[in-house]
Amino acid sequence: MSTTAALPLHAEPGSRRVHRAASPQTAATRVAGRFRGDLTTGTWWWSPELHDLLRVPAGTVQPTVQLLLSHVHADDRPALQEALAVAGTSGAPFAREHRVRRGDGADRTLLVVCEPELDPAGAVLALAGLAVDVTDGRPAGSDDVVRHLQTEVEQLRSAMASRAAIEQAKGVLMVLMSCGDQVAFDLLAHISSHTHRKVRDVAVLIIDSASGRNPLPDDVRAILHDASPPPHPA
């Protein structure tokens, strides 16, 4: 049974939109869309931008990994399928270019960046990422454009890695504090503010502590201790 066939893709609120400057006669074209695959439910969600990018009208068909792969050039399809399978089992991120054919028949080149989301134990929960249409942004011999795209990919990967760490840390706090999602995030922000650390750095400290890799620093431990609910009476 193919590992990739079980992978899902999920649309996220607040997905990032990237626009090129439009001519007075031409409306701006969306060139980037987000995806998220929930491995626990087997469902794929695409952002409206990704539907638009592939010219697959939202609501007309359920996003699946097979639908994504069906738009990829036959010669590039095995590489993307393998990358998704490896990411779904090992948690390895990837960034790859693939030729695709949109729903309107136009051939384009997409840069697919994928950052798996892991639980505190390191198991892969979901595949999250971004697909960017780079067809018109890489004129032959333009080293500056290539460097710009490489920089943007690294920034996107860093942002997605930060988000994944924060989501994992929130899960740890929700269990530890018996609280909801928003309270867990507020606690992360509170610790960040009072220890002069970035929220992502606080999240990594909590994940490392939960997995047994490193103990919590004393200042973070003290805040968590003060925020912990009182023990239930025996």
Task: Describe what you observe in this structure.
- The chain is an alpha+beta fold and 234 residues long.
- Helix content is 42%, strand content 18%.
- It has seven helices and five strands.
- It has a five-stranded antiparallel sheet with strand order 2-1-5-4-3.
- A hairpin with a 5-residue loop joins strand 4 (107-118) and strand 5 (124-133).
- It is elongated and about 60 Å long.
- Residues 1-27 are annotated as: Disordered.
Summed up:
Residues 1-27 are annotated as: Disordered. The chain is 42% helix and 18% strand.
Report the span from N to C terminus.
Answer: 49 Å
* CATH architectural grouping of the largest domain: 2-Layer Sandwich
CATH class of the largest domain: Alpha Beta
CATH topology name of the largest domain? Beta-Lactamase
The rough form would be described as elongated
Radius of gyration (CA) equals 20 Å
Count of the domains: 2
Biggest sheet descriptor: 5 strands, antiparallel
Given helix and strand content, the structural type is: alpha+beta
CATH-assigned homologous superfamily of the largest domain:
PAS domain
Tally of helical segments: 7
The order of strands across the largest sheet is: 2-1-5-4-3
Q: Average pLDDT across residues?
A: 79
Number of E-state strands? 5
Strand content: 15-25%
Low-pLDDT residue spans: 1-28
Topology order in helix (H) and strand (E) letters:
EEHHHEEEHHHH
State the share of residues found in helices, binned by percent.
40-55%
Descriptive key words:
234 residues, single chain, disordered N terminus, alpha+beta, CheY-like_superfamily, elongated, RNA binding, PAS_fold_3, 2 domains, ANTAR domain-containing protein, PAS-like_dom_sf
